[in-house]
Write a structure and sequence with these properties.
Conserved Hypothetical Protein Mth637, Chain: A; 5-stranded mixed β-sheet; 5 strands; alpha+beta; 2 helices; 91 residues
Length: 91
């Protein structure tokens, strides 16, 4: 599955959200330096989906906030279900 996520680095907490248009947004504590934010997103997705980090590949957006990840360890419907169950609502 290809998963598109907008990343917001330098946040106070790590959170997975959906914006008002229904797109995925992930806030991460790491700065966007030397791929640290990208690595933190992969770690967070791995933990959230309970899959190995090696099954999550950053396909595009290495230096852009809008990123696309390829996830191969689970079927698409299972990934979307787990993301929905673990997302936060922004206040």
């Amino acid at each position: 599955m290809n998963l598109q996520i907008k990343i917001k680095p330098n946040s106070k907490v790590n959170l997975l959200l959906k914006d008002s248009t229904g797109h995925w947004v992930m806030k991460v504590k790491s700065p966007p330096v030397d791929g640290k934010a990208n690595e933190e997103v992969i770690r967070a997705l791995s933990k959230l989906l309970k899959i190995p980090k090696a099954t999550i590949v950053l396909v595009s957006g290495h230096t852009h906030p809008n990123k696309r990840f390829q996830i191969t360890a689970l079927p698409q419907d299972e990934i979307l279900r787990l993301l929905e169950e673990n997302r936060h609502t922004e206040k």
